[in-house]
From TrEMBL:
Name of protein: O-6-methylguanine-DNA methyltransferase
UniProt domain Methylated-DNA-[protein]-cysteine S-methyltransferase DNA binding: residue ranges: 85-167
InterPro entries per UniProt: MethylDNA_cys_MeTrfase_DNA-bd (IPR014048), MethylDNA_cys_MeTrfase_DNAb (IPR036217), MGMT_N_sf (IPR036631), WH-like_DNA-bd_sf (IPR036388)
Species per Swiss-Prot/TrEMBL record: Bradyrhizobium oligotrophicum S58
One GO term of the biological process aspect: methylation
One GO MF term: methylated-DNA-[protein]-cysteine S-methyltransferase activity
Keyword Methyltransferase (UniProt): yes
One Pfam family in the UniProt entry: DNA_binding_1
Domain of life, source organism: Bacteria
CDD domains associated with the record: ATase (cd06445)
Alphabetically ordered keywords of this record: DNA damage, Methyltransferase, Transferase
Amino acid sequence: MGYTIFDTALGRCGIAWSDAGITGVQLPEVREIETRRRLYRQFPEAREQRPCSNTELAIEGITAMLRGQDVDFSDVVLDLGGVPPFNQRLYDCVRAIPRGETRSADDIADELHVPKALNSIAQALTRNALVLIVPCHRVRDIGNGLDKPSPNSGIISKRRLLSLEGARPHAGLTLFDAFLAVDRPRAS
């Protein structure tokens, strides 16, 4: 496994990969060392390397997306080997949500034909290591205190990502979404 740290308009991000594809994306933390630590905790076997072509494609997409550009990640190969089948189905569904749009957790549950699986959906989205490529920020209304940011979202809020995509605020956003609207301060 490999990883690299790269510059974006919002700070230094990290990405990890295997021979099979991208395994994780880490958005910027306040300091680069924190971004590296998070990657290391998730992927302790990964070593810093020069990115392969698939990883370069993902990096180009991430940097463009964080500049507010429209990006299609469909050609980026993901390594979902350690991801449970339900999560894989959910991630495919979330990847199909168009840029600048959101879906409620209930909408996703209905689309997956699992109307009572809101807890499972919330847990799978919280464990999403492929932020931006699997745009979990486009899913709203996960209640019962389960709507937590992915550990990989760094200092960038869900609301900020949606604003970069040109999404309009939605009346159904939860209180947690309102809390996320304020990005955590960056250290200088």
